[in-house]
Structure prediction request, 266 residues.
Amino acid sequence: MKLQRYALIALTALVPSMAAAHSGDRMPDPPLHVDPKLKDCSVEFSSDLTQDPFHRFVREFGSTAAFKHMAAPTMLGRRGVEVAIQQMNFHVEDHSHAWNDTFAHPNATHELGSDLSFPKITLRVGVTDRLDVGAFWTKNLNANYGWLGLEAKYGLLAQNERTPISLSGRVAYTKTLYVSDMDMHAVTTDVSAGRTFWNVLTPYAGVGADLVIARETSDVVALHAETQVVPHAIGGAELKFWHLALGVEGELSALNRFEFKVAGVF
Prediction:
């Protein structure tokens, strides 16, 4: 009986503790930082921003913005040209300090949102049979951030009767534009392999990393510069028919990304 009594007392004490723990699982959302001059959520550092959230923001924002592959490892060939419109989609924890204290909003109810998407315009040109160069640009027209990227891709292997796959290596540079509170750059390297079926469909996979370098230039905080290496893995497929190319690609990284494209190939 004493054992049962002690067990009942312990259980009675534990239940409120468990309830309190569960009630604390969901912290209240932090208030938004408001700048009524804005049309849309923009990168504008708050005085509440500290080093750890800035570290996370650089890792997530920088690696997601970095110019990624979004193409099969096959080459365009000398004087080949691809013009594409791409759509990038990813998910963020918008109420975390990393994203809440780095963005300002038009009003107190205009949240950033957790599911974000951006269009891109890309251009690729075949310089030789083994070398392609390219560029991309995008901007949130109602906000203060955008990106410009440059890339070079080199064909290491070309699929033929003796070689079952195509293999390419790639390096890219991305500059974050229009943001006055930070100076951010990213250098990306990756290698990918794929196999073309029926001369139209090329599934592929690859691995790489982003070197993200960011320095805050805000008047309201004093933080150390951040330099981070963020690995990533990609997988996708490209369908080509005549002068049309359709592509999808997913990325596993600091923030997972899904992207698709429609391109003209000439």
In short: Confidence is low (pLDDT under 50) at residues 1-24. The helical segments are 2-23, 51-65, 97-100. The domain at 31-265 is CATH 2.40.128 (Lipocalin). The two ends are 86 Å apart (CA to CA).
